[in-house]
Amino acid sequence: MFSLLVTLLVSSQTLAQTWCNKNYIQGQPVVPPGGQFSVPELSSTPLLVFRCAPIITPYLEEDNEAGVIVETFVTYSRYSGAEPIGIAGPSSTAALAVSIRVNGTLLAQAMVGLNSTSELHFPLANLSQPRHQPFIIDCTASYASPDSPGTQTFSTTAALSYLPPPLSGSVTKRDARTGALLVKPQGSSLYETIFPIGFYTSFDKYLDSDLLILDQLKAQGFTIVHPVPTFGDLKALAKVLDRMEELGLFLIYDMRHTYNDPAALAAEVNMIKHRPNLLLWYTADEPDGTSEPLDATRRAYEAIYAIDGYHPVSIALNCADYEFAAYSAGADVIMPDTYTIANDPAFSAKYNTSCTLDFGCCGCDNCRGELEDVSRRLDDFTMRLDVLGWVHDKAVWAVPQAFGGEEFWTRAPTGREFIIQAILSVNHGARGIMPWIDPTPADIKTASSALAIALGSVKTFFFDPQVKFSRVVSNRIDVGMWTLGAETLLLVANLNAHDAGLKLPLFDTLEVREVLNYGVQRTIGDKTQLRFEFEGLGCGIFVARPKSLVLNVQGDEL
Ligand SMILES: *[C@@H]1O[C@H](CO)[C@@H](O)[C@H](O)[C@H]1NC(C)=O
Ligand SMILES: *[C@@H]1O[C@H](CO)[C@@H](O)[C@H](O)[C@H]1NC(C)=O
Ligand SMILES: *[C@@H]1O[C@H](CO)[C@@H](O)[C@H](O)[C@H]1NC(C)=O
Ligand SMILES: *[C@@H]1O[C@H](CO)[C@@H](O)[C@H](O)[C@H]1NC(C)=O
Prior knowledge:
Layout: H1 2-15, E1 42-54, E2 56-57, E3 59-60, E4 65-77, E5 83-84, E6 95-102, E7 105-113, E8 117-123, E9 135-144, E10 151-160, E11 162-163, E12 173-175, E13 180-183, E14 192-194, E15 200-202, H2 212-219, E16 224-228, H3 234-247, E17 250-254, H4 262-272, E18 278-285, H5 296-307, E19 313-317, H6 324-328, E20 333-336, E21 347-348, E22 353-354, H7 372-388, E23 395-396, H8 415-427, H9 442-457, H10 459-463, E24 468-474, E25 477-484, E26 487-494, E27 500-504, E28 506-507, E29 512-524, E30 530-544, E31 548-549, E32 554-556
Parallel strand pairs: 3-11, 15-16, 16-17, 17-18, 18-19, 19-20, 20-23
Antiparallel strand pairs: 1-4, 1-5, 2-12, 4-8, 6-7, 6-9, 9-10, 12-13, 13-14, 21-22, 24-25, 25-26, 26-30, 27-30, 27-32, 28-31, 29-30
Helix pairs in contact: 4-5, 7-8, 8-9
């Protein structure tokens, strides 16, 4: 986040540091930063990507059944772990005999189709006792080709957590199918999904000075608060965290200044881990920006799991493409900082240099200065997680820009610019929204509160494993559609600064409910289509009840 950037850059003049491993001071040489993600090479024959992952992390003693997601993805790209499979063509309807075992004992088996995702379930009693160390599940898939003799066997493993209950404090579970976090809300005995939305929030001289700020945040619909250290006064911190707990606000606990110091990290984890409203740990803040040691996040991650193990770990990354795999290895939740509003990402207002793929610091790494920077970054991260085999293990969140008027940014976003960043992010996979930073301009606070209430009211669509998702991008109008039963949730955003329109063929739309509207004039044309008319940067959230949804879109400029 940029407060760290400020600190870094002040010292950088003397230390000759880099940002995203690029030089950025006038007169410095241009040195390619390296560390880019390698896009997988192509194969001339089909490859099988065979993957297993626990559905829920962690399982607890109180649960009866566990499940494993089995993925049999067929591709021509050399994804991590992809192996040649002797099928005639990619559209083969062949099936694989899949079995999962622990320590040689069969837990479940099934025939699964090629290029499919299935779930295999088994009683947790089959794992003997819960324990702190994960169980290694061995997954095998056998393929008997009709065209050639013999059987091909593929194997992989999954680490499944089956934990004893925590001595005190709470558990944050993750659902690998949807990226959802599950918590027990205050006073409830059942786990429920949460849509995490709330700001990075200044602590010293803000949160610490007025506990009523928390009451307001709760009333405004936010579900999380991320106090930003330093925490000058630990008694004040305890009061803030107590009040958050009373109000049912979940905590992201930030250890950006201590995660590299094992003793300090252990002390903080031990101080906080018993808090029932702890949702996530947060360690490295833009470690790629400052080129922290490549194992820094991973070491902190392992240290936190050794002491706690009941709450996931998160980080924020600033760079477009610098050592993604190394830093992401140390997190369960990864959030890119893509601050593109009121910024010229080609010329650094602060350093009086141009910014390129190899040089410069512009506040939005390798950006083009358009809203698509936000969705492109999320798409890139999702693609890399998929290539690495981590899509089921790690979720992506967004950090919408909620500041400006300093450094590289000539002004803060408007309320509508804020909302459109967030809607675009959710459409491109973000399963939490944590803007930088509160205090924020009043219109952003108002808009983000409306968004928090809206997202909370429709979260079932994002987090029900049965949901069918599709996305349409046409004429810079971005539409995410989540269909569950007879209803379709639509998140719509016109990225154009001018008016535009879009028709979606939704047959027999019975009713459209408006959940959030910033400049969308919706009209239902006839019985066969849903027509949206947008103002510039118009965006909103709607629920339609069609009988069927045909994805054949016509862009339609007004
Ligand atoms: C596998 O499934 C995906 C998603 O359903 C699809 O896009 C892809 O074309 C399929 N691949 C093959 C080789 O059939
Ligand atoms: C695995 O099997 C071995 C030998 O049968 C046994 O000693 C060990 O405790 C088992 N481990 C687990 C996790 O069940
Ligand atoms: C797994 O658990 C079920 C239910 O307790 C039991 O019937 C079955 O025999 C167990 N299987 C193994 C391999 O332990
Ligand atoms: C910015 O850089 C240009 C040369 O690239 C120089 O002429 C100009 O004086 C610089 N401006 C400032 C404010 O340093």
